[in-house]
Amino acid sequence: MTEALSLERKSTERKAQEPWSVADFEAAIRAVGAERYHDKHPFHHMLHGGKLTKAQVQAWALNRFCYQSAVPRKDAALISRLYDRELRREWAHRLLDHDGYGEEVGGIERWLVLTDGLGLDRDYVISMKGALPATKFAVEAYVTFVREQPITIAVASSLTELFAPKIHKERISGMLENYPTFIDDKVMAYFKRRLTQAPRDADFALDYVLKNAKTREEQEACVDAVRFKCNVLWVQLDALQHAYVEGHLPPGAFRPEA
């Protein structure tokens, strides 16, 4: 009887460590977004629902620039580690989507059009001097993660893009409707462009991760990478909520009245 129980336990343990099916693996990734993507954050709802002042929207745009400007650095860090030429070629367009190339101004420039439209000094935004400490730490943690993690896990951290089109649509419609005095179509160009870029990028990254995470351990690490990235996005809104809604501004942070 004891031997039978032992064999049954070993069989259960082996089964628990077997790789997920492709469908189950993808479902586990998508479940992370359903649980903790930052479209569920209270600050997000205030932003899109017209509950913020212009100064609070300025603080959001200024701090979010830290993230936007880090994306091509993150992508460059990944590209520098790739021996697969085709993967480098595919990933390089992400960097150029943000930095721009030729006639294409790029996502960072589009974000600066947004901060320009909000009345922020461009040089001040680019300097990131007024950004919250938590924002800077979170952004650099993401760059470091991609630089140091195994390739497949680093790629997996980008899979929050699976959930991005929904939040971009909400942002476009909500901000245009609720802030007509300082938000217009021109300043929302960044989000409109990402409606096509993000799904393309996400489809490629998802296919790569599903094919290259071979073991259950690798699969779970990829799911954890998506959780990590959601945390990076979430903590930035936590910091904005704490500073600009609850009024706990740290030294050196952007002060709208200054």
Helix-strand pattern = HHHHHHHHHHHH
- What portion of residues is helical? over 70%
Counted up, domains total 1
Number of helices: 12
CATH level 4 superfamily: Heme oxygenase-like
CATH architecture: Up-down Bundle
- Indicate the CATH class: Mainly Alpha
Task: Describe this structure as you would to a colleague.
The protein is an all-alpha fold and 258 residues long. The protein has a single domain (22-245), classed as Heme oxygenase-like (Heme Oxygenase, Chain A, Up-down Bundle), CATH 1.20.910.10. The chain is 72% helix and 0% strand. The longest helix has 30 residues, at 216-245. The protein is globular and about 75 Å long. The N and C termini lie far apart (77 Å).
